[in-house]
Amino acid sequence: DSIVQFENVGLRYGTGPEALSDLSFTLFSGQFYFLTGPSGAGKSSLLRLLYLAQRPSRGMIRLFDSDLVTLSRDRMPGFRRRIGVVFQDFRLVPHLSAFDNIALPLRIAGMRDADLATPVREILDWVGLSARGDALPATLSGGEQQRVAIARAVITRPDILVADEPTGNVDPEMAVKLLRLFEALNRMGTTIIVATHDIHLMTRIKRAQMMRLEGGRLFDPTGALRYPPKP
Ligand code: ADP
Ligand code: ADP
Fold first, then answer.
1. Nearest-5° angle of CA 147, CA 183, CA 38?
2. Looking at this predicted complex, what is its ipTM?
3. pTM for the whole thing?
4. Per residue in 75-96, pLDDT tens?
5. Phi/psi of residue 145, each to 5°?
6. Which of 79, 145, 180, 221 is 20 to 30 Å from 60 by CA-CA measure?
7. Ligand 2 neighbourhood includes 4 CB (under 6 angstroms)
8. Which ligand is nearest to the CA of 47?
9. Residues 178-230: tens digit of each pLDDT
10. Burial class for 100, CB neighbours closer than 10 Å (0-12, 13-18, 19+)
């Protein structure tokens, strides 16, 4: 099933040139996608469109079978909750412990402390940080912080996980470990989209599909600019 559809999407910041042009592609539910391309190619911009932090200047985006451009504002938060996001710089709340960072999305959704303790502890365990729940982000290594960020992104069980250079601030060994977490999530049915220029990393997920951006356009060796083929 298709989960994301772009038709002739363009994005322009202010009066500048188009940062993204003529993007037409379909992403399928349950797949693993790598988004590659040189710095400035538009990867972050494309991801921002996907997690609804940015509206397109033109074109159509369908997400979960709804047209985003006509989606009413009051339905936006519901959509955002179905998309987890992980950033290169972690973006943890500095004065909250690892536990409380992970619990945050559940608290925002109105879950009581008595109900969230178990799921938060389970996911802390899953990312290998069961002993670090009380730690503040600044006392954690980069790899540990990113595992907290991943746990926070998936605690609400989103349908899609978007990650923008998630391994950019960790060592190569940790990068592989983080990738294994994404792979495990993907096996549980989450659609994964990871922007990276780490070629070495991409070869590690055999069934992942590649999307390559260059100068704001999807690069397709056939020239059809239609990515990716139906699996
Ligand atoms: P990538 O993630 O591949 O490095 P970006 O999406 O960050 O690419 O950037 C694509 C283009 O859009 C670049 O030319 C960049 O300078 C421009 N750009 C990105 N964000 C903004 C912004 N907030 N305002 C103006 N221009 C931007
Ligand atoms: P505005 O100038 O209206 O604030 P922005 O581009 O800053 O527009 O987007 C902010 C708001 O637009 C978001 O809070 C969200 O409600 C809505 N929005 C974000 N992404 C999209 C999208 N892809 N299509 C339509 N609306 C969007």
1. 80
2. 0.72
3. 0.87
4. 888 888 899 999 999 999 999 9
5. -60, -40
6. 221
7. no
8. 1
9. 999 999 999 999 999 999 988 888 888 888 988 999 999 998 644 444 445 44
10. middle
